[in-house]
Amino acid sequence: MEKETKEERIARRHRERDAQMKSSPGYKTFAVMFTLAYPFIAIFTFVISTVLAFFSGVSRAMAWVVSGGRSH
Fold first, then answer.
1. Contact (CB, 8 A) for 61 and 68
2. Cα Dmax for the chain
3. pLDDT tens across 11-60, in order?
4. How distant, in Å, are the alpha carbons of 29, 44, 45, 49, 54 from that of 36?
5. Phi and psi of 20, rounded to 5°?
């Protein structure tokens, strides 16, 4: 039987650890919850980004008006 190299041993341990983690109830619960919540996360991110862009535009416009049109 061939002796396992250090790299092979590390890779095998990582595979074993990943398999053990993926079989845990916490991992499975998180995977399902993240899959269900992802559309809401994406929509929330879009809405917040839009609101921030709007207020940034308002702020820039106010700075331009206050400076008498000289602000860039």
1. no
2. 83
3. 999 999 999 999 999 999 999 999 999 999 999 999 999 999 999 999 99
4. 11, 14, 16, 22, 29
5. -65, -40
